[in-house]
Amino acid sequence: MKFLLSILFTLIISFSGKSQSATENNFLFTEALKQLKLKEKDVRTELYTEKVLPHSKSHSVLVIPKIISSDGDADNNYSFDFDAYIVIVDNKSGKIINKYFEPEAWISDAVMLSSIEIDTAPYLLQPNNRAFGIIVNYNGSSRPNPYGRSDLSLFVINGTALKPILKNYVLAESTGEWDTNCSGEFEDMHSVFLIDKQQSNNWSNIIVKQTITSTKNFVINDNCESKEIVKHKKLVLKFDKRVYK
Questions:
Q1: What global pTM score does this model have?
Q2: 202 close to 126: Cβ distance less than 8 angstroms
Q3: Arithmetic mean of pLDDT, 130-151
Q4: How many helices, marked H, and strands, marked E, lie in the chain?
Q5: How many CB atoms neighbour CB 139 within 10 A?
Q6: Per-residue pLDDT tens digits for 49-77
Q7: Confidence check: pLDDT of 123 > 50
């Protein structure tokens, strides 16, 4: 039987959704920075996130977005490039057990990186080899052309490293073009992941079920009316000895 892993992912997540004090007096965050030789001023702390692993509660996943460049002034720092540090730490000592680093992993500009989530759904893709996910959410800044997207990456432990086995898969996306009053067209796509019995190179296939909703708004007799069409699509991701494709 296929195992349901994920349900709908909401796209519109405000940049201020995470508390500014997420790193204040945070032992794990402080210890991780020491070991990575980073300073707090180097990190976009609003985007920092951590989560205890449900299958290994003595360990936590930390996602640390290190700023490598920015445009804007002190009151309007909206454009950033980030290095990605993703680590698993021991909850008692703060010691880094596993680490992944990717330079220039994320860009936040007109399409703003609004939040980062850690997905601990049971991605059991091999016996005794459970993956976890990192979801990066983006929002566009245009009102006439609204846009949102959620990208999913999956990681497994590989010695002292973390190995990415799925990179920046578009899990959900919302687009539109309208007159900001009524008339316009919109499309929303969201995905559900299922683990299949079938395997490729000894890794379970991932079945992706997409729901695509197209909406058209129009004015009739001074009223804003809409018509909606829903389509369903099924995809299969297979492991090619390196990553899922």
A1: 0.88
A2: yes
A3: 96
A4: 1, 12
A5: 20
A6: 999 999 999 999 999 999 997 665 444 55
A7: yes
| Cβ-proximal residues to 134 (8 Å cutoff; 6+ apart), any chain | 63, 86, 116, 117, 118, 119, 152, 153, 155
Write out the two tokens for 193: 């992941």
> Which value, to the nearest 10 degrees, does the dihedral of the CA atoms of residues 115, 41, 62, 60 take?
-130
Matching residue, tokens 């990208």: 151
What six digits make up the tokens of 90? 């021991």
Tokens of 242: 């390196």
From residue 124, alpha-carbon distances to 39, 86, 128, 206, 216 in Å are 35, 20, 7, 10, 40
User: Which tokens hold the place of 175?
Assistant: 């687009």
Q: Of 164, 155, 101, 166, whose CA–CA distance to 132 is shortest?
A: 155
Is pLDDT above 90 for 168?
yes
Check residues 12 and 200 and name the one with the higher pLDDT. 200
- Distance CA(167)–CA(10), nearest Å, equals 20
